[in-house]
Design goal:
The complex is a heterodimer of chains A (358) and B (273). Chain A contains 15 helices and four strands. With 358 residues, chain A is mostly helical. In chain A, helix 2 packs antiparallel against helix 7, helix 13 packs antiparallel against helix 14 and helix 13 packs across helix 15. Chain A is globular and about 70 Å long. Chain B is of the alpha/beta class and 273 residues long. Helix content of chain B is 36%, strand content 24%. In chain B, helix 3 packs parallel to helix 6. The chains are: A mainly alpha (358), B alpha/beta (273). Chains A and B meet through helix 7, helix 8, helix 9 and helix 10 of A and helix 2, helix 3, helix 4 and helix 5 of B.
């Protein structure tokens, strides 16, 4: 009843192309933004920031990036962990080489460097596709992790082989290092996520996004109607790697603080982000966020219920947790193979007619 | 407008056909040992509806693929607008103003009808990654301007009601129409149609024929088409090329072709000696 488009007339193509064409959606979106910016920073504590919000925001950025490449442009990648490592190490080198520059710029430049590396490893996509491309990106994953382990220059010759983030600020507020306030971490990641999500939406709604989707749906037809596959695929790799690089930089500098590359950015990271976009929905921005939320929140929720409420031993709970998460993933995919975003879309379609479906 | 354009002709129904828009000179195309096209020459004139017909396996689709740059012939030259065309990738051919549809529908199934037709405008949309990132400004203006042109095509082909429908949900006949819309959205100089009426019922065929004539009439688009329905071909086209086993066996107006003994033999299956 409230959720309807009747009477909401669009009189220009700009209105017709807006992100939330239905008024109710638009209000909901503004409300979420208002709560995220004006309420949560004042009530957040260290537990909520470190266990829930910061990892969610960072994984959402990585999922957006992978979704641009896999969901929109159809190029399967298993190199996400490796590209996150590039972002992390680039950020580390920048932080230690230019300590006076705001870390905001370090994070963005780290993304830019990752974009270059991503384009390099995207070159095979011009020749091969599908599973074969996935294997080629797997090579990127292992090569990059190996590289950051073996070349001491990347970790500034530290004895442990780890990198750890020094204290850096944005506009005078500390956002990295052990003295950071929860709200500062949260707001820093939130601002970057909102900015990147807006960019992802802009890129996928216009001609660039249509080139990507044309390549995804039928590459031969795309070429015949005038899409240059070289620029389309490489731009997807570049943009995707930029997002993933930013996520890696934040993951290292803001979230973990100290990182050992094989442990933090191994192959399991690549799969985790891939699961996020499959569960959330390929080719959907909302899906990337929903998938990241699902994969980050569910284990926390289960742990709270099993250990906190039912009082089970931690190790037992940890194993059961794996089983439940796995089972839920399978369940969700059987229920809706196109992910949470499609589930949401169908709900909205039903809502439009509710309560008079005829 | 064209240098070769001095010798046009007037059709029976009084339309003026201009000079040579595209000329195929001695095209030979081989796949390994198989010669799909053997030394074929013909021209397509500005404003004309040119049909390529022939039995199955005659090399018609291969010829269309040569025109759209998908196959590179081993011998022969392609001339477009009075200039010899160097070897090009298909997307460069598209940028020259040649659009096409496919025998098996080649729409982008994951996108809406509107998005599919908008992809037809991609050769004209120049705003770069940076402008698209910010959206407001150049990218949005470009989007709106191209949307307006696409809406004209949507009106023209009478598919307003399915604008926002995902393509995967459409029935076959409408998909064919959307594919034509995508090709038309590019505002091509030369439109290639590969069996636009395959698998349609009589009513849909009549609709499609009307659209093809209207496109030619209103936009002045030159059309080259492959079709198996002889009735449709003879009604629509100004001149017809007939191919058989990769060779050209006839070329001329529908009436000339109809009375050509080689063509009759090819269609009736007289043995080749």
């Amino acid at each position: 009843m409230l959720y309807r488009e009747a009477g909401d007339f669009k009189t220009s193509y700009v209105d017709d192309g807006q992100t939330f064409p239905i008024r109710f959606d638009r209000w909901g979106y503004y409300a979420v933004l208002a709560i995220a910016f004006l309420v949560i920073p004042f009530v957040i504590n260290d537990y909520w920031a470190n266990a829930v919000f910061v990892p969610f925001l960072i994984y959402a950025i990585a999922a957006l990036g992978l979704n641009i490449l896999t969901g929109y442009c159809g190029q399967v990648s298993l190199g996400t962990g490796g590209f996150m490592a590039v972002g992390a190490y680039a950020c580390y080198k920048l932080m230690t080489s230019f300590p006076d520059v705001s870390i905001f710029f370090h994070v963005l430049i780290a993304g830019g460097i990752t974009a270059g590396v991503g384009m390099l490893f995207g070159l095979p996509s011009l020749r091969i596709k599908g599973f074969y491309l996935a294997v080629a990106t797997l090579a990127a994953q292992f090569f990059l992790v190996w590289l950051f382990n073996k070349v001491p220059w990347f970790y500034n010759y530290s004895a442990s082989g780890q990198i750890s983030s020094p204290e850096r600020t944005v506009l005078g507020y500390i956002v990295t290092g052990p003295n950071t306030h929860a709200w500062a971490k949260y707001l820093f990641c939130l601002v970057i996520l909102v900015l990147l999500a807006w960019i992802a939406r802009n890129l996928t709604r216009g001609s660039v996004g249509r080139r990507w989707m044309a390549i995804r749906d039928m590459d031969i037809a795309a070429e015949i109607i005038g899409v240059n596959p070289l620029t389309a695929k490489l731009s997807a790799f570049a943009v995707s790697s930029f997002f993933i690089g930013v996520a890696g930089a934040l993951f290292f500098s803001v979230y973990l603080g100290a990182v050992e590359v094989g442990e933090a950015f191994g192959i399991q990271k690549s799969f985790l982000v891939l699961f996020m976009i499959i569960i959330g929905g390929l080719g959907s921005i909302l899906g990337s966020l929903a998938g990241a939320a699902f994969m980050v929140l569910l284990p926390v929720l289960l742990k709270n219920i099993l250990v906190g409420q039912l009082g089970w031993p931690t190790d037992l709970a940890a194993h059961i947790e794996f089983m439940i998460v796995g089972g839920l993933i399978i369940g969700f995919l059987i229920l809706e193979p196109h992910g949470l975003a499609q589930l949401w879309r169908l709900t909205k379609e039903k809502l439009r007619l509710w309560p008079f479906p005829h | 407008m064209l240098d070769a354009g001095t010798d046009g002709y007037v059709t029976e129904d009084g339309r003026k056909i201009g000079g040579v828009l595209m000329e195929m000179k001695n095209i030979t195309l081989r796949f390994g040992g198989v010669e799909a096209i053997k030394d074929i020459s013909f021209d397509i004139r500005e404003g004309e509806i040119r049909a390529i017909i022939g039995p199955n396996g005659a090399g018609k689709s291969s010829m269309l693929n040569v025109i759209s740059g998908f196959y590179v012939p081993q011998e022969g030259e392609v001339w477009f607008r009075g200039q010899r065309r160097p070897q090009m990738k298909p997307f460069q051919v598209a940028a020259q103003g040649i659009a096409r549809t496919f025998q098996n529908i080649a729409l982008f199934e994951g996108m809406s009808v509107l998005d599919n037709i908008m992809t037809g405008r991609l050769t004209q949309m120049k705003s770069g990654l940076a402008a698209q990132t910010v959206w407001l400004g150049k990218a949005q203006r470009e989007e709106v301007a191209n949307r307006a042109r696409v809406e004209r095509v949507i009106d023209f082909l009478e598919i307003q009601h399915i604008r926002k429908t995902p393509v995967a949900r459409l029935p076959y006949g409408l998909k064919k129409r959307v594919e034509l819309a995508r090709a038309l959205a590019a505002e091509p100089m030369l439109l290639l149609l590969d069996e636009p009426m395959a698998g349609m019922n009589v009513e849909e065929k009549e609709d499609m024929s009307r659209f093809i004539l209207d496109v030619n009439d209103e936009f002045g688009t030159t059309i080259a088409l492959i079709e198996h329905d002889m009735g449709v071909v003879m009604d629509l086209s100004d001149r017809v090329v007939v191919m058989d086993y990769g060779k050209k066996i006839g070329d001329g107006t529908p009436d000339e072709v109809r009375n050509n003994q080689d063509v009759i033999d090819a269609y009736l299956g007289v043995s080749h000696d």
